[in-house]
Amino acid sequence: MDPVTIGLVFSGAIKAVGYIKQAIALGKDVNSLAGQFGKFFDGADAIHREQTKKKAEGKRTGKSDAELGKEALEIAMHSDALRQAERDLKDMIVWQLGKPQIWEKMIYERNRLFKERADAEKAEKERQLAHKKKMSELFLFCMYFFGGIVVLFALVMGGIAIYSTIEEKRIYEEKVIAHQKIILKRQKDKEEEELKARDKAVAGG
Predict the structure, then answer these.
(1) Which of 9, 104, 106 has its CA nearest to residue 49?
(2) Is residue 81 a part of any domain in this protein?
(3) Cβ contacts of residue 7 below 8 Å, gap of 6+?
(4) What is the pLDDT of residue 57?
(5) 64 pLDDT band (50/70/90 cuts)?
(6) Most buried residue, 23, 157, 182, 200, by CB count within 10 Å?
(7) Nearest alpha carbon to residue 51 among 17, 75, 15, 81
(8) pLDDT in tens, 28-45
(9) 134 part of a folded domain
(10) In which domain, by residue range, is 33 found?
(11) Average pLDDT over residues 108-137
């Protein structure tokens, strides 16, 4: 979350605490304040998660919370203030009103919802990772497929070129043989004519 959003979330959680304390002081039923408790717990959990993220960021960068700057310090202060507010609410319900079972029920429901949210976030991350993996595999398949087509096309074109060369050579050789046959036939015809002429001359003499 950005600093403005964090500030709004914190303010909302603190306002919810103030409303709850005032309502309890006026004798209102705790069960009627479920909505305000929900706002407080949602806001507090969001701030606590942001603090955890900042600590993880500090470990990755080798920096402490203080070195991460004003934003990290403010989040840490907000988180501490909300944890203290949560302890105050617990003391009011458990000791002032004498209803620890109500607090236990709220904490149980809070943890259940937190687990559901964490499981949903985990499932969403796994879905996104699976989607990225699927898209990566599809991309690789397309690359291999088109690469195969290019190779096949090159082989076909190479085969056509080789076949054309062989065919041209065959046609050329056939033409050479045909030409040689013509020359041989002409020579044979000439020799036969010369032989006839000699025979005729000998017969006439």
Answers:
(1) 9
(2) yes
(3) 74
(4) 61
(5) low
(6) 23
(7) 75
(8) 888 888 889 889 998 888
(9) no
(10) 3-98
(11) 87
Taking the C-alpha atoms of residue 39 and residue 104, their distance in angstroms, rounded to an integer, is: 17
With tokens 């009103």, the residue in question is 97
Q: Give the rounded distance of the alpha carbon of 3 from its chain centre.
A: 28
**Inside any domain, residue 9:** yes
Least confident of 63-67, 68-72, 129-133, 188-192: 63-67
DSSP conformational letter for 100? H
SS3 63: coil
pLDDT(15) > 90: yes
**Domain-embedded: residue 26:** yes
pLDDT-derived band at 59, boundaries 50, 70, 90? low
From 5, 1, 34, 3, select the one nearest 19 (Cα to Cα): 34
Query: Which residues have C-beta within 8 Å of that of residue 19, sequence separation ≥ 6?
Result: 33, 36
b/e map 60-93, b = 16+ CB within 10 Å: eeeeeeeebeeebebbbebbebbeebbeebeebb
CB 90 within 8 A of CB 20: no
- How many angstroms separate the CA atoms of 81 and 158, rounded? 77
Q: How confident is the model at residue 84 (pLDDT cuts 50, 70, 90)?
A: very high
Give all strands (DSSP E) within 28-80, no chain letters: none
Q: Provide DSSP, 176-203.
A: HHHHHHHHHHHHHHHHHHHHHHHHHHHH
